[in-house]
Design brief:
The protein has seven helices and eight strands, in the order αβααβαβββααβαββ. By secondary structure, it is of the alpha+beta class. Strand 7 and strand 8 form a beta hairpin. The longest helix is centred in the first third of the chain and has 18 residues.
Length: 264
């Protein structure tokens, strides 16, 4: 079968944990991915066009199963009662009586409830069709109506996603750091880079390639798209506060000092 929703949730959360400090790669917050190796049949040549990446969406949801649906728990309620409950919950969210995260934590039967309903990112073909039909046709930052899949009734919030590049300057003792510089030396260096960016002596991509301690530096600091709930809080807050084309001040996380530029 194409996909079991609960199984998918566990996999997504495992991937999110890996990208946020629980896995084995370095990140903007300690968790960006290393550039992928070429695993195509025979590789590619410089003259071949790089295919466009499939659309990735980020979403949170609330799941209320009912009697007879796939993976329904023994105490699942009747179908009409499940619909009425989720409709009431959705109404409370719309009126501001509950946040989506609070409602997911209290009512959702999906394991993602422990993350406020957050499912992470996924592409077409990874969720059941009824779920994808709703999510991929929603504008970012909006809530769905109550809808049904074989697993029960859902309400979905499509998470807004942004894209940034960053420069990470770590110090000895920072999380995952392998550098020997002191914290004071790291601060002096990141201040110097900030000044070079302000004066136009270096472009952001040039500075990232030359100085960044994150593997993304080889790609000009590009981290790809991500939503909230993925990066470490200080990094996430700074990134989402930026307008497209704007560069942050110096941001400190457990991984070091960052300069962040929003690109999308």
């Amino acid at each position: 079968m194409k996909f079991k929703l609960h199984y998918r949730v566990y996999m997504v959360l495992a991937l999110v944990a890996a990208s946020c400090g629980g896995g084995g790669n370095d990140a903007a917050d300690g968790g960006t991915e290393e550039p992928a190796a070429d695993v195509s049949a025979g590789g590619s040549t410089a003259d071949e066009a790089i295919p466009e990446a499939p659309e990735m969406v980020y979403a949170s949801h609330i799941l209320i199963p009912f009697e007879g649906c796939t993976q329904a728990p023994p105490d699942a309620m009747e179908r009409d009662s499940a619909f009425e409950l989720l409709s009431s919950v959705a109404d409370s969210i719309e009126k501001g009586l509950l946040t989506f995260e609070e409602a997911a934590g209290k009512y959702s039967s999906c394991p993602s409830s422990r993350q406020g309903g957050f499912l992470g990112g996924f592409q077409k073909g990874q969720m059941v069709p009824e779920f994808e039909d709703v999510v991929f046709n929603m504008p970012e930052g909006t809530f769905s109506d109550v809808f049904e899949t074989e697993y029960g009734f859902h309400v979905v919030y499509r998470e807004p996603a942004i894209r940034v590049s960053h420069i990470l300057i770590a110090w000895q003792g920072a999380e995952r750091s392998t550098v020997a510089r002191s914290r004071e030396e790291a601060l002096e260096l990141v201040e110097s880079i900030r000044d070079s960016l302000s004066s136009g002596t270096l472009t952001f991509a040039e500075a990232a390639e030359k100085y960044s301690d994150c593997p993304s530096g080889m790609n000009g600091g590009d981290l790809g798209p991500f939503s909230r709930h993925v990066m470490t809080p200080a990094f996430e807050d700074a990134a989402f506060d930026l307008e497209v084309g704007e560069t942050s001040g110096i941001v400190e996380t457990p991984f070091g000092y960052h300069l962040i530029r929003r690109t999308e």
